[in-house]
Every structure is written in structure tokens, then in C-alpha cells.
Known about the structure:
The structure holds two protein chains of two kinds.
Chain A: H1 2-21, E1 25-31, H2 38-54, E2 57-58, E3 61-69, H3 74-86, E4 92-95, H4 99-111, E5 116-118, E6 133-135, H5 140-154, E7 159-165, H6 169-184, E8 188-195, H7 203-212, E9 216-219, H8 223-236, E10 242-244, H9 251-257, E11 265-268, H10 278-291, H11 297-316, H12 321-329, E12 334-336, E13 339-343, E14 349-350, E15 353-359, E16 362-369
Parallel strand pairs in A: 1-3, 1-4, 4-5, 5-6, 7-8, 7-9, 9-10, 10-11
Antiparallel strand pairs in A: 2-3, 11-15, 12-13, 13-14, 15-16
Chain B: H1 3-34, H2 41-57, H3 63-86, H4 94-116, E1 121-122, E2 132-135, E3 138-141, H5 142-164, H6 166-176, H7 178-183, H8 188-213, E4 216-217, H9 223-236, H10 241-261, H11 269-283
Antiparallel strand pairs in B: 1-4, 2-3
Helix pairs in contact in B: 1-5, 1-8, 1-9, 1-10, 2-3, 2-4, 2-8, 2-9, 3-8, 5-6, 5-8, 6-8, 9-10, 10-11
Amino acid sequence: MKRRVLLVVMALLVFCAPAWASEPVNLGVYLPMTGNVAAYGQMAWSGITIAHKMEREVLGRPVDLKLVDTKSDKVESANAVSRLIEREKVVAIIGEMISGNTMAGSDHAERRKIPMVSPTATNPIVTQNKKYIFRVCFIDPDQGRIAAKLADQELKAKTAALIYDISQDYCVALAKFFKNEFAKTGGKIVAETKFKTGDRDFTPQLSAILAAKPDIVYAPIYYTEGALIARQAREMGLDVPILAGDGVQAPELIKIGGKSVEGVYFTAHFHKEMIANERGKKFLEAYEKETGKSLDAFAAMGADAYFITVDAIRRAGSTDSTKIRDALASTKDFEGVTGKITLKDDGNAIKAMVVNRVKDGEFVYVTTINP
Amino acid sequence: MDYAFFLQQIVFGLTLGCLYALIAIGYTMVYGVLRLINFAHGDLLMVSAYIAFFGIVMFHLPWPAALVIAIMLTGLLGILIDRGAYRPLRRSPRISALITAIGVSFLLENLGIVIIGGRPKSFPVPEMFSGYVAVGGVRIPVLSFWVVLITALLLVAVVLVVNRSKIGIAMRALSRDVETVSLMGVDANRVISFTFFLGSILAAVGGILWCMKYPAVEPFMGVIPGLKAFVAAVLGGIGNVTGAAIGGLILGLAEILIVAVRPDWSGYRDAIAFCILIVILLTRPTGIMGEDLPD
């Protein structure tokens, strides 16, 4: 009997020991690991885990990542955030990758005053009237403006056709911003077609575009649809240049699109050729050694969301959520993997944008546009 | 609206419609015999696409071999699903089997996610199925010929099997009265297994053609075509093979033509397609070719 009691006491001691040493800082991560935009989530997660390996500790405590899959779904995103806050007791949250899901997830975080940093949600509404929601990427009005400029100056387009996903906040808003900005350059939208997430046949939309004879097609959409649309367009004889947004930068675009996506231009967050600082070089080396893959935009953005959050916790000097929030809002000229990042009090970032294009089955860097 | 433009849309509509038809025939056959809406039917598309994909890309099989293996394995999976999930529930209320069907569907989708992962894979389309033929101002994808040809052949084959063969007679008899037919010495389970095999083969062929047309293979790829095919089967009169094919064609043509004629309505494509379904069902509650089957 005595022995058994002793055993129990010892087991309890072992069990409680880590709590005495240093309790981990829980950092929530909610990402689309499966579903329609799984590529973003999986790329970002590999970036975040490698960034975590580079900076494992903050305030002398280990950082513990808690990942929840959102299945690329809005309802699941909202559930993921409440689970992270209520059950995992996280001090800050990284995610989601796409705008619609981040909006769905941000409500609960805002209410419970838990700071959230999205790597790539670009829709302006994501951070609007929200004190605790941040992002480390540019926003769509800027992306629409640069795309219109590209269409006008680079591609010499006078007319454009639109094709976008009406069930995604990102696509609808970016299409609208492009439309306004393209009109300012004197361009004209000759066809505007829509589809819904999950659609696979775009031939009637593309027929309407073909009949309207535009100079370019602007497709602010995600990668799977982007690849299928390019394939179907080229097969139908629609050979005009395709201009897209940051959503197409996933390897799937090229794997599924094949030769059809050659020459696709797009505004983007990152290309590894733009890496200029120490952190970026170290991260690139670690990433390529660890994964054996070439560093992509969403991995780099995920890493920056992690680095900035950890940096804010360090500067806040505590895990108090209001203090972390204030530290995030005062982030200035942070040297991230994707370049200099400054966060404003409204949650948006000031940072550079790049233009990439698909050439010989690879994403090729074209130019950087500074803010 | 010019003539070539319209013809072009008919070509696209027929292709999509035939794909729906292929899948719808399987739905309708199982329903005809068992009165069971087999919601896992759409996911068989995904299974066959993945088997074909791995056969070609990972095991470097020549594509005809990979496709045949994919189709056969999917057919066997259909029998297996019936044995494992539906046969034990043969005598329970119909709603139990229906819920089980939804469960099997989720099981297949989530197995896909766990085993293979959620990112879409690019289906390698064999050379002979790519490209197009230009006739006048109309571009006909080579694949469209194959889709229409294969659908027509399989439809004829299935109609012949159902109407002419001995097992077809047994199938039709079973759809009227299981008990009596069993008393007459027909092995009901064998006939039902055959029905599942045939239906699953059609789904597998549909899945492979679907992937050649839209070459992104992912765990949820069967959900939407499955749903549309179910609608097509109801539209044509569920339980009727020819009706399912007609339903599929109507749905495919409607979806394409609506968007082509009114591109600004493209966001409402499904809404309009389903409105057509409602109107047809209001005027003909049993579907286009349907008859009142005894319960």
C-alpha cells in the first residue's frame, strides 16, 4: 500500500514538473489544411513550423503551436477560433489564409480581445472596425490598382473581361477594385462573368468572354479554378493574356494548368528572389534544407505572421492580450522574410508588392512595387 | 446570337450532360432495385479517379491498364459497400439505409483526406483525349466525341442488360417485389450485388472522363457531380435508365446555355437549373420517363 502511494506521489510530481519549470505560451493557428484552398494552409503551416524551429522561445518560455483545420470553410473557421480561445487558451492567433474565412473567424477573437494576425487575407473589410485583427499583407484596393496599372502599361490593354468567384469575398472585392481602377486608366470592361466555388465547367462564361473580344482577362480567383479556367480558355481559342491576383500562386496552378498557364501575370506577396535581409536568408536556407522544396509565397507569409506575433509578445513583455495587441500595432519596419513590414493602428500593413509571371513552368519574379 | 456560338454551346452542353447522364444511370439503377438513394455514388467517381491517377503516376502503368483497373476496383468497391453497409439494413426502415449512405459518403471523402491529403492532384490526360477538331466556326474538343460515344454505348448496353438479359429480368422483378421474387428462386443478393457493380462501373467511367475534362483530382470532387446526377435521375424519373440519361442531358444543356446566353446571370446558374427541375416535377411529379412504382 505504502509503495503504491509513493508511486502516485511520484507520478504526480513528474506530471506537474513542466508547470514549475516554464509554462508554454500557446499560440493558436487556424488554417485551411483540407478543402478547396488547402494548398495555402499547407504551405503556410510548413512556413510557420520552420519559423517556430528558428524561434522556439519567447519571454523565456517555449512557444506551443496549436493547429486547427478550417477545411476551407467559413463555419469551420469560426468554430476553430472559438476552440482555440476557449479550449486551448491561446494568447494570440495566426490565420486564416483567405479573406472570407478570416472574417468569419475574427468576430470571436475581437469579442474575446485575442489578437489575430492573418498572413494573407487581403480584403479591406477583414480589419475594418476591428481592434484586435491584423494582417501582414497588402490590401485589395492596392492590388486592384497595381493590376490595372499592369494591364494598362505592361499589357497595353484597352478592354478587359472579368471572371471571378461570387462566393468568395476576396474575388468579388478584388474584381470591383480592378474594375474601378481600370476605368480610371481609360480602359473598358467588356464582359463580366461569375461562377461559384466548386464549379468545374467554365466554358459558357469563357464563350461569352471570347465573343466580347477583350485585350486581357482579369481573373482574381484561387489556384484550382485559375488552372482549369486557363486550360478551358486555351482549348477554346481564347489566347489573350490572363492577369490574376495573389490567389493563384500555388504549385497546383502550374501542375494542373500545364502549358495553358504560361505567361499568366499576377500581383503577389512574395518571390524568393526579393529576399534582402538576414532573417529572410536564414529562413530560406532553413526552409529549403528542411523541406527540400523551393520557398513559396504562402510559406513565407505564414512565417512572417509567426515572427511578427512572437516579436510583439516579446516587446509586450507579457502574454496579456491587450499588451500584445498594442505591441502589434506599433510594429515598425520589421525585417520580415517578405521584406519590411510596418503595422498600422487599423490593423493593416505597409509593405511592398511584387509582380510575378509563369514562365517555363515556374513562377518568375518580374518586379517589386514599393508602398 | 450567331449560329456558331450557339452550336459551340450545344457541344459543351452535350459533353457536360453526358457526364451527368453516366453518373445518373448508376444512381437510378440502385434506386430502381433497392429504393435506396445511394449518396456514396458520387464519391465512387473520386475513388476511381484516384486509383487511375495513382496507377498512371505512381505505378507507371500504361494508361489503358490503369483505367481498366480503376474501373474494376471501383465496381468491386460498390459491391463491398453494399455488403458492408446496406445489406445488414435490408429489413430496417428505409431511412436507416439512407442515413448509412450519407455516412458511407462522408467516410470515403474523409478517407481520401486522411490517406491522400486535401490538395488537388493533376490528372494526366492521355494524348489521344486532348486537343480539338475545328468544324466551321465550332471547336469540338476530342474528349467530347469520346464522352458522347462512351455514354451512348454504355447506355445501350445497360438498357439491353436490363431489358433483355436474364439478370435484367430479375432486376426488374426485384424492383416490384423482393419477397415474391426471392420465393421464385432468384438469389436477390446476387442480383443486387450485380446492380451495384454495374452502377459503380458507370460512376467510375464517369469519374475518369470527368477528370480528363476537369483534371483536378481531390477528395470532394464527387460531391457536386453526384448531386447534379441525383437531380438528373429524379428529373428523368428515378428508377428509369433512359430517363436518367435524358435528365442528365437536359441539366447539362440548361446549365451551359443559361450562362452562355446571359453571362450576367452566371452566378445564378444552379438556381436556374434547379428552377427548371421544380417546374418539370410540378407538371410531371414522377419525372420525364418515370412511372408510379409500387412502394
